[in-house]
Each structure stands twice: as structure tokens, then as C-alpha cells.
Amino acid sequence: MDLLLDVNVVLDICAKRQPFYKAARDAIQLCTFHGGKLWLYVGSVQTLEYNLYKELKQRHEIQGVGLTNRDLYAKCLALLEAFAKDKHWLAALAMEGNVFSAGDPEDAQLVLALKRFGESKIKLLTRDEPLLKAHPDKTISPQEYIRQNIPGSDRFIDFIDLKTQQNNIRPQLEKNIHRVLHHGQYIMGPEVNQLEEKLATYTGSKHCITVASGTEALLISLMALGIKPGDEVITTPFTFIATAEVIVLLGAKPVFVDIEPDTCNIDASKIEAAITQKTKAIMPVSLYGQPADMDEINDIAKKHNLPVIEDAAQSFGATYKGRKSCNLSTIGCTSFFPSKPLGCYGDGGAIFTNDENIAQACREIRVHGQSKRYMHTRIGLGGRMDTLQCAIVLAKLERFDWEVEQRLAVGRRYNQLLDEAGISRVQQRPDRTSVFAQYTVFTPKREVLQAHLNQTGIPTAVHYPVPLNEQPAYKHLCCSDCTPVAQDIAGQVMSLPMGPDLNESSQNAIVETCLAEL
Asked: Which domains, from first to last, does the chain contain?
């Protein structure tokens, strides 16, 4: 459970007020022990400053300590700064300002602030008796929190922990969002260009074009290449539906090539046999965060004069032979869906290319085919990424290098634990890295294992239970039984909790729970 700290609790600790100090201290230590977050409300800053200074001054006057007012004030600020150092700040929003009709406006602000957390487990830690009685479902005293939270109790593991990430980037996140709210350029604002420049630099690509979603990135890329009805695009059947969806939307035909049984990526050795005179592009997917055999795919494409689009929706941040995903082929496309390794708080995506003509076509297509205002030189669509979402990704980029390193470390530890336990998993090739958008294992007892894990508070997911060529809307377009590996794998894959903030104790619990059932 997270805790929002009332002013009285903070003052109890900073001023070591008796007899309240020990309970307040123990409660917040216990919260941290159990993985909870401690929050301070920005709107309480002046109250904290005023009351702590007042208390220190009264105490020193009684004790006869000869400190100047300036020294006392400096001590007050130092105590507050030290206390707040490892806490998370909750911004004061405009909606929480109209509280003067309440009996205690300060308390009313804190109660309103709790609503931002929805149904998540957070309470206001306070020893204010009227507040405790008025809001028993939203507040808790230090003594009661200690009673309810005995060290060693279990806690729920998130499948993808976005809360911890948000807590760590909150100051920059709020700064970026408020900058957009102030300048008001919600469509194609300055943050769009800033993000495109940073993403291009990160991948090493000459051009980055942000778009409304990962699906839009794929669709616009195909349009820029001139894919039309009757054309064929070679791809994998083992991926999210968007990969094939965009091909069919343009009237083209997806041609599915089977996958490798250990990586779940498209089997490059089977691509050339699928090429016909109608083939106009190859679209491999960097599944689960690991690029496919891009050099072999590019060689085949070059031989047949075909462009390659890397569907890198899950692999932004991964590398292939030292080169970044999204800069491995003619075009790279990624997604900023919230659960992706680099995600926004809605939909978003990006296209990468080193080809000037393709880049120009993509830029025009995303704004309804405009080369300039009200001059439509090609068929397009409304595919821009919102300025607010770009501002969010800019904030997340500042932590992204660290997150990639952590994902690699968490993935390696999973590999070691699972290999020692004899549990089969998706393999990673030595010439590339995976950012583990999902960490996936193989099990013929999937339903039983999922039920067991869920009962113990460990969520799971299946990516993907039905190959695309077996989906009802696509069966008539292609062979439904020509990808036996994908059919077999679809019945075995199961993804475990994964993320840069997943700790070792949680990993141990996950693997031990799997082993107990298997």
C-alpha cells in the first residue's frame, strides 16, 4: 500500500515530536519495506515550512539555545529537504483548490488528491482523529498501519509496473506536460520535432517521423512504398494483428512464413521460397523485443529488389550486431503503446528511415497527404502523434538508457533461474539483444500454470494464442495450416511479469511458483 503523508506525520518525524515520532517513523519504514511508495503533497510545502520553523523556534526558546532566526530557518529547510529526498511529490492540481467551504481546507485537498489514484491501494497516513473518522476508507493512522502490515506479508506483483517508472520521472513528466498546456500547441507543437530529433539520434537513423500509433507507422510506411491491391507482403503469422491488418487494409495480401521454434521470430531461411512476382515488401517482426535475422532478410530483399520494413513495435532499444533496432532495414516502425519498452500514456508510434524520399512521403501521408497547407499531393490520413504524448516520451527518454540496462539484467536473471529450473523459454541469439517487451516461456500446461500463478497474485498473459492465418477475418486470404511451428508455439507460450523495476525477490517468487506447479 502506498501512503500520502499528512503534515502532522511529517512534522512528527522531522521535529521528533513525542510520543508520536516512533509510530510515524516505523509506519513509513514498513511501507518502504513492503515496496510501497511514500508521497508528499506539493500543496503542503508552505504549511510544512511554517509549522516546522515555528516549532523549532519555540523549542529553542524554551531550551535557551542561542540560534539566530536565520540559523533556525536554515535548519528547518535542511530537515525538510533531507526528509523529502527519497519521497515522491504529488502535484497540486487546480481541481483541488476550491476547498474553502470545507471545515478544514487543507484536509479536503489531501482527500481530493487521493482520488487521482483510482482504485489503487493508497491511503492518507495521519493522526488527525476527525479526519480518520470522517474518511475511514481513505485514511489510516501510523499505529493501525503498523498493525495491519506485519513484515514478511505477500504483495501483488504487477505484470508491467508503470507506476514505479512514473513515480521516478514525475517531476520531468509534470514539467513537460505543463509546458504543453501553457503553450497550447496540442497538434504538431515543438515537442514533436524535439522528440523526432532525439529518437533519430538514438537509433542512428537520418529521419524519424512520429505518428499516431504503431499500427499507423506500419500503414503509412506501406503507403509510402506504394503498396496497392493485388500486391503481396511477406510477414510472420506469429505477431499482433496490426502487422497483417495494415497489409489487408491496402488491398494487398499477407503471405505468412513460419517462425523459428526457439526465438518465435520469422524463419529467414524460408522467406525466399515465398517470393513471387507479386511480392512488393518483406515485413519481419522483432518479437518479444529481439530483432529477427535482419542481415539474412536484407540480403534476400536486396537480391529481389524488395524493401524491408522492420516491425519493431516491441524492440525499441534492442540491438542487432551493434546496430539499433529501427535502423536495420529500409524502414523501421515502432509503437509507444503504454506497455512497450518506451511507451507514452495513450497511442503513439514512429517511423525511421535513411531514405529521403520515403521520409518525405511519410511526413506528407501523416497529414492527409499535404506537401504544404491545403496542397494535397498524395493520398494520406490523419496520423499525427499528439504533442502531449511526445512530451511524455521525452520525459521517459531521460531514464530509458538505464531502463534498457535493467531490462537486460532482469532478462539475464530470468534466463538463469529458468534454465536452472529446467523451464523452457524463448531464446536470445548471441549477436543481438532483447529489451524483453515480454518475457515468454513455453509450457504445455499453460492453463493450469496460469491459474496457479494468478491465485498466488502473479499475473500472466499470452502473446499470442492464435496465429494470424488462423484468425476468422484472415483465414480466407491464406493457408491456415502451412505454418506448423507457429500453430504449435501458439498453444505453449506464456508471458511472465517483466520490467526494469522488477526486483530479485519478485523474480524468485515467480520462478519458484512456476516450478511448484510444473
From this structure: 2-155 (3.40.50.1010), 166-394 (3.40.640.10), 400-517 (3.90.1150.10)
pLDDT at 45: 94
Distance CA 213, CA 442 (A): 30
Tell how strand 2-5 and strand 38-41 pair up.
parallel
Angle formed by the axes of helices 214-224 and 242-249, to 10°? 40
* pTM of the shown model: 0.79
Q: Do residues 362 and 351 touch, judged by C-beta distance below 8 A?
A: yes
- For 476, other C-beta atoms within 10 Å of its C-beta total 7
Beta bridge partners of 311: 285, 333
**Which sign does the torsion angle of CA 216, 222, 227, 231 carry?**
negative
DSSP 475: G
Phi, psi of 134 (to 5 degrees): -75, -30
For residues 354-359, give the mean pLDDT. Answer: 98
Tell me the three cell numbers of residue 494: 506464456
> Which has more confidence, 446 or 29?
446
Mean pLDDT of all residues in 317-340: 98
pLDDT at 129 > cutoff 50: yes
> Is the pLDDT score of 501 beyond 90?
yes
Contact of 176 with 391, CB cutoff 8 Å: yes
Mean pLDDT of 118-122: 75
Vertex 296 angle, CA 321 and 408, to 5°:
30
What is the Cα–Cα distance from 8 to 47, expressed in whole angstroms? 10
The DSSP string of 95-151 is GGS--TTSSSHHHHHHHHHHGGGTTSSEEEE---HHHHHH-TTTEE-HHHHHHH--T
- DSSP code per residue over 43-57: GGHHHHHHHHHHHHH
Return d(Cα 253, Cα 53) in angstroms, integer.
Answer: 72
- End-to-end Cα, the chain, rounded Å: 31
